[in-house]
Amino acid sequence: MRFAALLPLLAGAVSAWQSAVPLARHGTALRRAAVHAKEEEVVFTFGDADDMSDSTATAIMGEERELTEREKEIARLRAAEKFIQKATGNAKCNTCGYKYKWEEGAPGIPKRTPFELVPDSWSCPNCKSPKAFFAAETIEIAGFEDNQKYGFGTNTWTESQKSTAIFGGLAAFFALFISGYALN
């Protein structure tokens, strides 16, 4: 009973497919003819960008303007902005991951020896890789590299050192302020 009900649907699907195949062949012929058409007749549209008002066109042209002298100076300064990289004295082996810490030293190297002063003949205690296979650890110091040599020496401080100095100074002032009440 169920099969008998599905038979007319199946027959309708087969006839629809048979009628679609010649249309697909006909569509292929149309596409080939369109390829051989002149280029002047080909028009591409991209959704809403097809119809552009005059105000939109002038806004786009305004965005493509020449940079002002001030904007050129800002771009030049941004290009010159290079933060200084300060060596920490530590290094990490690229082969095995061993970390050389300058406070602890290493076998054959005394304590508190920065990695830059370790001889080139030294090798990793774990994997015996040469010093060239180590990557020195650095920290970035904020500010222009040209300005690092000015000031009281605080320009070469790291962010954490500057924060400690600022908030330590505030804490010392607060303690001094509160100690004034203890005099009464």
Automatic annotation (TrEMBL):
- InterPro entries for the chain: Rubredoxin-like_dom (IPR024934), Rubredoxin_dom (IPR024935), Rubredoxin_ET (IPR050526)
State the signal peptide span: 1-16
**Residue spans crossing the bilayer:** 165-183
Q: Which GO annotations describe the biological process of this protein?
A: alkane catabolic process
What GO annotations for molecular function exist for this entry?
electron transfer activity; iron ion binding
- Keywords carried by this UniProt record: Electron transport, Iron, Membrane, Metal-binding, Signal, Transmembrane, Transmembrane helix, Transport
Q: Does the keyword Acetylation apply?
A: no
> Ranges for the Rubredoxin-like domain?
88-137
Q: What is this protein called?
A: Rubredoxin-like protein
Please name the source species.
Chrysochromulina tobinii
Q: What is the lineage of its organism?
A: Eukaryota, Haptista, Haptophyta, Prymnesiophyceae, Prymnesiales
